[in-house]
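Action item from last week, closing it out:
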Amino acid sequence: MTKISKDQKTAVLKYLTDTSNPELINTYLRFIEKKLNIQPVLFPRDKTIYSGIDKLVGALEEDGKLWKETEIKIRFSLEDVNENTKKIYICPFTGKVFGDNTHPNPQDAIYDWVSKCPENTERVGGLRVKRFFVSEDPDVIKDYAEKTKSAKAPISKTVYTSALNGKLFNSKNAVIDDFKRHYIKKMSLMEVQNQNRFQIEDKFLAFLQDQLAEGKITGFIEALAEYEEFVPYIEKWLEEDEE
């Protein structure tokens, strides 16, 4: 028999009292959401809903669609970066960097630099490619700011590029944090069940179908019936089912 904990009971009762004409299935989904701590997320780019952020991140990492490991050169120059720099543009061929506060127009400057850079041997149509990195990660910027204090020959450093926006980050975790902040939308189980615009990831869909089995919903109703405050709602659901 389905059992309802004190916290689950409180969550269900709050949903019922806060909702006008609460439906049985939605109430049950609120219970499942609380019981199993499910926090679905939508990945709008792929139009797919996952059971949680960790499942989504894991799937993208497995397919190589979240981050890419790359190597940059750090070239040291005292005027390039300082403690007030928030965004940098980096030449991948020499490590030359332009800061948003140390150059009047850093984006134009990096375009001009890579188009003339003698170490840029990449060509498209006979012209040098205008490829460069952009980073707003404080840890990446910090590397440049600290190294400029003792200018030496350029060094190489392994960093991570977001597969979604191309920006550089100091670590994989930083890429993932940026992804969580900007590329997902949290949903409730009720929203997942009541929508038809997005596909549901296969394992999550199978889980929902299993949870919505008639026997489990019946067990939920029987568990609610043990508490007097739920009886009026149960009676209403049963009446609607008979109509």
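Closing note: The chain has a mean pLDDT of 89.
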